[in-house]
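thread: overnight batch results

M.L. [08:02]
morning all. the overnight job finished for the chain we discussed friday. pasting input first so we're all looking at the same thing
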Amino acid sequence: MGFFSAARQGRKDDAELGKGLWRRAHDRFQRGLDRFHQVLEGVEDDQLYSELLEIANELAALLERVRLVCMEAQRRSPNEGLDIPVDLAGVHRALSKAGNSLATTAEAAAMLRLAVGPVPVGAASVRRRAESVFQQVADAERHLDEEGSGPRQADIPG
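M.L. [08:03]
and the structure it wrote out:
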């Protein structure tokens, strides 16, 4: 990505995700994906590479879902800081867990890449960790649906 396209993307992200909590959650997930793909570049075993590539593609498909959750959360509860809105705490928790799980998935892939000799179970450990990422993104979407059906904090008389 060139300098100007990166600057345009940054402005678009600022408009859609804000500069606070939801932007950080999205960017953290994206960094985890980038790290997973960096690890993938160093895999020399063709079969292991194929297995990890399939997982990487499935994880990459989650980025758009994470972005949509973060955009909707920013729309409902605009946030330029790091304070977690009470009405969207479950969404934030699930996104944080997804980012953490994605980081440990990339770590597991890195450990496989460093393994000496053939790996008898292939990418099974990476697949197990990736499953938690899928579940946590689904949890964020579910929380967004559930928490969005109740009154917003600003709508509660006080």
